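Saturday, quiet lab. Running sequence design on the structure tokens for the scaffold JK sent over.
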């Protein structure tokens, strides 16, 4: 009944939102029946979920919202999805995203933008905008996104749901279409901290198929979020407190959050993250460099779109890529190729790796005196569809509070923090908590206090 109810709701309302790229009605209902009959069991038996359109499944298509992969059918399941299905979850469908996960608004998709369910004139954030919108519109009970520079936390914030980016290496990337391999991480969206903890518990952990997945077991009590955290020292970094950058509603939500922690007995400590200002430039060098390399595989021969009647092999490569990729993806490939080219490699790529280390060290030092850092997820609420589409730089700057966690590999969670006024309407904003690597159990417990 629950699976049917979600599918009915999607059929009725998703025309307005475009959260899903495709649904698997027949397969989902078949699995739901098996749950009813007791033939599928497990801790998530019968829980209907949605997955971002860049996680391979042996059913349906995996398009990454790109013309390049419009017809791509994978022949294996990504580990994260497989583990959730093994635990009994039911995949309702794949959700829309920015093409190859490059973007912050879910507008760079080849198959139309996703709209924010709170107000369809606004973006849902991105790149996992479809997965976040599916949660906000009540089109699933939980969903999976990927976060390379904020793509789970930022849309969670703009759609008023909870989203968790786990530690790099916590969830296997096997079967996740690569954007920037040293930053990409799969994570859950939920209606609560507990939802996110539960999904992470069953999809995370070591996987032989991904050599970067950490050989660290998921703690048995990861989803026991109501237990009081052992230590409660909340770090506040002045770099995230700028009244100039933050919307007044974000600034007051932050003050309120500090009060909530104080009332819970937390010690509030000031921490310094001096290299925060380099987060955006470093991220957009590292991410584009890795993307340019990862996306070299789409050559019209191995995968994806192939142009018709090419003149020769070079023309086959060039035209297949020109036709298959959208503007933002091309921009990133060019930026990344430039940063990696001989003569510029040391000045851009190599230098950005050094600053990445400094950013990571900032967090290590900060976590010597606190257990989690409290900060906004975004500077303000959602912007209008089309508003930033032709201004890539302003779109990139939008990621200022999220990219450093990916550069450092640490976990971060975004939780609903009330609303801010935009054009006379109230739209959601989010509050973020960042924690030390592999300390999700403590991070989730600390998050639960705020929720
Ligand atoms: N908005 C960022 C970008 O465009 C982050 C994307 C992501 O996390 N996948 O790269």
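Result came back. Writing it out in full:
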């Amino acid at each position: 009944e629950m699976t049917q109810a979600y599918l009915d709701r999607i059929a009725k309302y998703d025309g307005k939102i475009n959260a899903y790229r495709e649904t698997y009605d027949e397969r989902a209902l078949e699995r739901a029946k098996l749950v009813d009959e007791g033939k599928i069991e497990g801790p998530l038996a019968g829980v209907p979920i949605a997955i971002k359109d860049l996680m391979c499944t042996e059913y349906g298509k995996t398009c990454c919202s790109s013309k390049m992969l419009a017809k791509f059918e994978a022949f294996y399941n990504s580990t994260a999805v497989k583990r959730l299905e093994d635990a009994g979850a039911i995949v309702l469908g794949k959700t829309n995203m920015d093409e190859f996960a490059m973007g912050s608004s879910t507008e760079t998709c080849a198959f139309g933008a996703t709209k924010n369910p709170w107000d369809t004139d606004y973006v849902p954030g991105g790149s996992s905008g479809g997965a976040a919108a599916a949660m906000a519109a009540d089109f699933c009970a939980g969903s999976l996104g990927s976060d390379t520079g904020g793509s789970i936390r930022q849309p969670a914030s703009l759609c008023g749901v909870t989203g968790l980016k786990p530690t790099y290496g916590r969830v296997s990337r096997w079967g996740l279409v690569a954007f920037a391999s040293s930053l990409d991480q799969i994570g859950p969206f939920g209606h609560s901290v507990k939802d996110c903890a539960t999904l992470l518990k069953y999809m995370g952990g070591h996987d032989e198929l991904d050599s970067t997945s950490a050989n660290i077991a998921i703690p048995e009590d990861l989803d026991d979020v109501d237990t009081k955290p052992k230590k409660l020292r909340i770090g506040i970094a002045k770099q995230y407190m700028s009244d100039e950058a933050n919307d007044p509603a974000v600034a007051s939500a932050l003050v309120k959050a500090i009060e909530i922690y104080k009332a819970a007995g937390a010690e509030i400590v000031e921490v310094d993250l001096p290299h925060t200002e380099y987060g955006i430039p470093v991220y957009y060098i590292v991410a584009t460099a890795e993307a340019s390399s990862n996306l070299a595989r789409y050559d019209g021969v191995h995968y994806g779109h192939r142009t018709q009647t090419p003149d020769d092999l070079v023309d086959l490569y060039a035209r297949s890529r020109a036709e298959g990729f959208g503007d933002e993806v091309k921009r990133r490939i060019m930026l990344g190729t430039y940063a990696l080219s001989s003569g510029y490699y040391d000045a851009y790529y190599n230098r950005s790796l050094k600053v990445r280390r400094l950013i990571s060290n900032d967090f290590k030092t900060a976590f010597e005196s606190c257990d989690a850092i409290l900060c906004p997820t975004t500077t303000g609420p959602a912007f209008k569809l089309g508003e930033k589409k032709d201004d890539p730089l302003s779109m990139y700057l939008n990621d200022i509070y999220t990219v450093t966690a990916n550069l450092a590999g640490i976990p971060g969670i975004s939780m609903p923090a009330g609303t801010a006024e935009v054009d006379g309407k109230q739209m959601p904003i989010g509050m973020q908590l960042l924690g030390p690597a592999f300390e999700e159990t403590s991070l989730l417990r600390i998050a639960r206090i705020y929720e």
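Notes for JK: The longest helix spans residues 346-369. The domain at 2-203 is CATH 3.90.1300.10 (Amidase signature (AS) enzymes). Ask whether to fix the surface positions before the next round.
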